[in-house]
Amino acid sequence: MTGTQQTIRLTMAQALIRHLAAQFIEIDGRRMRLCAGGFGIFGHGNVTCLGEALEQARDDLPLWRGQNEQSMAMAATAYAKQQKRRRFMFATSSAGPGTTNMLTSAGIAHTNRLPVLLLCGDTFATRLPDPVLQQVEHFNDPTISVNDAFKSVTRYWDRIMHPAQLIQSLPRAIDTMLDPADCGPAFLGLPQDVQGWAFDYPVAFFEERTHRIRRQTPDAGEIADAAELLKTAARPIIIAGGGVQYSGAVDELTRFAHRHAIPVVETIAGRANLLHSDPLNCGPVGVTGSNSANALAREADVIVAIGTRLQDFTTGSWSAFDHDARIIGINAARFDAGKHGSLPVVGDARCAIDALAAAMGDYKTAEAWQEKAAKERRNWDDYVDRNISPVNEQGTNRPMSYAQVIGAINRLCDPDDRVVAAAGGLPAEVTANWRTGSIGSVDVEFGFSCMGYEIAGGWGARMGQLETDPDNDTIVFTGDGSYLLLNSDIYSSVLSGRKMIVIVCDNGGFAVINKLQNNTGNVSYNNLIKDCNLAVEPFAVDFEAHAKAMGARAETVHSIAELEDAFGRAKASDRTYLISLQVDAFDGWTDEGHAWWEVGLPEVSDREEVREARRDLDEQRKQQRTGV
Length: 628
What we know:
The protein is of the alpha/beta class. The chain has three domains: 7-211, Thiamin diphosphate (ThDP)-binding fold, Pyr/PP domains (Rossmann fold), CATH 3.40.50; 220-380, Rossmann fold, CATH 3.40.50.1220; 396-582, 3-Layer(aba) Sandwich (Rossmann fold), CATH 3.40.50.
């Protein structure tokens, strides 16, 4: 005879938070909460019910109040990346504009395959008070709210219309965020009345559960096919993506590459898979890459792509590889493993690398290919040495460049410090010029290429870093454009005691887009401040004063020597420290190592320079692989 199920009466919001607090994960033998807490700005759509539940759970799931819903969700995204997707944080907003502010952040998490739980207020399930404040009405479909916009940028989406639905939906959302193949943001729309509705929940729903990240074993037949192809390779390379780190497969990758003497190149998301000192680390590949990696990519006959989604900045818009090169795609996601006619190996990177190693026998690349890789690496190192030097070959000082700033910080920082950058010109400059001192220490958000991620992401990354590596710093590189777009989490970092070092490189506007504008035959317009429609003479923002107004320590420097001295003070500071400096908007860019990148250009123009750029585009397209 079946016994009576024990229940507890809770509101939907209380049940959501209580279930979330009962989830744990085992990482390297340690058991800890799966959700580290969250970020929240309260409004009428989440303060009375969800806010009440969060206050009761404040010790288990601490809530951090940000200054902008978009930046809070960005911070949660950066936290998940720093934690290698093994833990997550949530972000909650009220309704209407508070919710839509987080759409951009959901796009970052979705593009980069990172777990974030979005808990957003919604209109009333009963519709009795409609239309309510901040409700966008759809005349022909009353079931739609602004929350439906998240369907395109989340891996899991649901609107909880009855408290009982939470029993099925919340575990599914958590499972999605932990699935290596399907990982990404999960969204729960929480109607304001349903948040407060009570239900007799099974007590078992709140029992503690310990999760483990699934490791999918690849199919033996796919491994055999991959090994057979790789053994025929005369000039193979490995493209190491971010999935290598998420799998914890760095050691396996390193052993495999050295055993078979295969050069390794890194994607942007895969930066810091190998140390700079590793002789097989042949640099970043693609549009923001290195001469060394791109030279090897052009000659490679077999490409082993591990844990990468092969976006256009990696593939040079699919022009970086020989037309006849074969690709082996190792990825937990079937969608990514088979791209562009790749021979797919669907499974966990660590398991796949070990299985492939066992099937490869004594295979080793020829001495000539090894020497080619070593020579290309030496040449690129020599170029970076010159590029980051504060003086030119004649021994005189140059205007400060991104590369010089990056080189100076790289020389002085601790190898375990974490670097954060995004969008603009800095992703290319950091990717090309940063020399990795420790594994997994670089976060360049260039999947969604989102301006504004830098400072918010630094705040979230710092929260994760304090849990695993409290003795080191989080260093944020940002341009003046991104700083002006979203900077308020400097204040958040000071309030929360999560120190960052922020390097603001002021080049007078959106200089990298100005460079693209000029390089495609266009005149400078609306990118650099001086080229915008203005009512006054252009002037530089006082970033030092602005940061100080938010409680940070700050100073302005005018040379690399001054930057080095200031960085020492920033390292010693007990709170967020900003260093502002001006860099050259026109000269000093890293001008080598870049693969071709396709952008749309006019077929018709009054400018001969634009027409010439279009002719060059049509010619370059002949180098593109067609997908098979």
